[in-house]
Specification:
The structure holds 2 protein chains of 2 kinds.
Chain A (H helix, E strand, L loop, with lengths): L5 H12 L23 H15 L14 H15 L1
Helix pairs in contact in A: 1-2
Chain B lengths: L2 E10 L2 E2 L1 H9 L5 E3 L12 E3 L6 H4 L10 H17 L11 E6 L5 H14 L8 H4 L4 H9 L6 E4 L2 H17 L4 E8 L4 H7 L27 E2 L1 E9 H6 L6 E10 L11 H12 L8 E3 L6 H15 L5 E3 L12 H15 L1 E2 L15 E2 L4 E2 L4 E8 L3 E9 L1
Parallel strand pairs in B: 4-8, 5-6, 5-7, 11-12, 11-16, 12-14
Antiparallel strand pairs in B: 1-2, 1-9, 1-10, 3-4, 7-9, 10-17, 13-15, 16-17
Helix pairs in contact in B: 3-6, 7-12, 10-11
Classes of the chains: A mainly alpha, B alpha/beta.
Chain lengths: 85, 401
């Protein structure tokens, strides 16, 4: 399974919650909190649900509590992908 | 306390934005046409009033698009226009001094249909997280409240076509309790298969396929109404507060009343006339003070008769000009009556009654003075009548500025 990258995540984030036109999701956002990026809990739920569908992985909600930045989420998703192998 | 309308935002089948809508309404330009938003060829109803050329991304923040149904996108855009028109920056008013009360009739049906299809065809993991609220009746109110930081009283009225007046009436109650500004009105947009089949069983929709004749209220051969999407959002304020900030206004919400019909088969008379007299009394006006009536106009013969009877009982035969600009939009559910209120205010501003189209004057119940061509003249006060499926009646009197 290929690695889930920041660009993959960016694409799914745009589909999940749109963009405000100011290019918030461009550039280096790995360590910005989802809150700073304007992603509330529901937007994040929609994002993880789309990742689950796209990659056929499971991202248990209780483990999402520790995810607050794109870097955290990438690590979590890639960890789950590795477990599948 | 006097409740005045300081801002209007319109999204109608015959015009996007107030001036576009008003120009088309005065010239008798209809927005009713073949349904294009989905393939309606398999349904007995093929016509609707569709809001043309509305690209949500041009009017509302991209962030809000994945989480909103079309009705909410229209409501958010119309709210923005109404606030601009009122010349008020919500950031300059205390957040608890502003509230939102809108009417809604179907909820976010197009969004809901798509997500229910995802649920049944592909499974729960394919349902959008935003389905949790995007199809709610209250979602337009909620999204407007969040977007503009309006944290005062909020609510939604759900009484079909009457709901649009009920919302404005309720907004006025909040002004009386000391809130300074309310965003009110109504917006529905359920032009999808689910939205259509939900209305078909009432048997009141016109199956005439000709846009020039399908919806002909008060005609001898009226055969039902045409559905439509859109509505109007109004900014209403306490006149004193509006004056303090130097705002001009379109007119006053002077009177409002609502009644409920007796159960079918009870033998007791309908209560529409009582709503009309209630609104007049509330406004402190007599029937002679009303210069024009914007009728509910169901275009179902029995219902048209009830409305004509009520108007004759209050105003006398041919006692007041009656018009139905919604013959150019179709019936917009919760959006219809607020659009009529906006139209009444514009009519008073410009001293002209907009026409009823597609109804030949000679075919009309002769007890009514139905306005079939724009009619100029001073208008001091107007009455808007609205009925909702299931027995709701509402009437509102607006007085010129």
């Amino acid at each position: 399974m290929n690695e889930f990258t920041m660009d993959d995540l960016r694409k799914i984030m745009r589909e999940s919650a749109g963009e405000d036109g100011s290019g918030t999701l461009d550039g280096d956002i790995l360590d910005n909190s989802f809150e700073e990026l304007g992603y509330d809990s529901l937007a994040l739920m929609e994002t993880t649900s789309r990742i689950e569908r796209a990659l056929s992985v499971t991202l248990p909600e209780e483990d999402m509590a520790d995810v607050s930045t794109p870097r955290d989420l990438l690590a979590f998703v890639n960890g789950q992908l590795t477990e599948l192998v | 306390m006097t409740a005045v309308v300081t801002g209007i935002g319109v999204a109608a089948p015959n015009g996007l934005g107030v001036e576009d809508f008003w120009r088309n309404t005065l010239s008798g330009t209809s927005g009713i046409g073949p349904i294009s938003r989905f393939d309606a060829s398999g349904y007995p109803v093929r016509l609707a009033g569709e809001v043309p050329d509305f690209e949500a991304a041009q009017h509302i923040p991209g962030r809000l698009i994945p989480q909103t149904d079309r009705m909410t996108q229209l409501a958010l855009a119309a709210t923005e226009w109404a606030l601009d028109d009122a010349g008020v920056d919500p950031k300059s008013v205390d957040e608890f001094d502003m509230g939102v009360v809108t009417a809604n009739s179907s909820g976010g049906f197009e969004f809901g249909q798509r997500e229910l299809e995802n649920l049944w065809a592909r499974g729960p993991q394919y349902v959008s997280a935003y389905q949790s609220f995007a199809w709610f009746y209250a979602v337009n109110t909620g999204q407007v409240s969040i977007r503009h930081g309006m944290r005062g009283p909020t609510g939604v009225t759900v009484s079909e076509q009457a709901g649009g007046l009920d919302a404005i009436g309720h907004a006025r109650r909040h002004l009386r309790r000391g809130v300074r500004l309310l965003v009110t009105g109504g917006m529905d947009a359920s032009l999808c298969p689910w939205g259509l089949v939900a209305q078909l069983p009432n048997g009141r929709l016109s199956t005439d396929g000709d846009p020039a004749s399908a919806y002909r209220p008060f005609a001898d051969d009226a055969a039902g109404y045409v559905i439509g999407e859109g509505g109007a959002i109004l900014v209403v304020e306490d006149a004193e507060f509006a004056a303090q900030r130097g705002a001009r206004h379109y007119g006053e919400i002077a009177g409002y009343s609502a009644t409920f019909d007796p159960a079918p088969g009870s033998g007791r008379p309908p209560k529409l006339a009582a709503a009309i007299t209630g609104a007049l009394t509330d406004a402190g006006l007599t029937p002679a003070d009303i210069d024009v009536v914007f009728a509910d106009a169901a275009a179902v013969p029995a219902l048209d008769r009830v409305e004509a009877d009520a108007l004759v009982a209050v105003f006398g035969e041919r006692g007041v000009p009656v018009t139905v600009p919604k013959t150019m939009t179709g019936r917009l559910s919760s959006g219809g009556a607020p659009l009529d209120v906006a139209t009444a205010l514009l009519a008073m501003r410009d001293s002209v009654i907009p026409p009823t189209v597609n109804v030949a004057a000679e075919a009309v119940d002769e007890r009514l003075d139905l306005v079939t061509g724009a009619r100029a003249g001073h208008l001091g006060a107007a009455l808007v009548v609205a009925r909702g499926y299931g027995g709701f009646n509402a009437a509102m009197v607006v007085r010129a500025a």
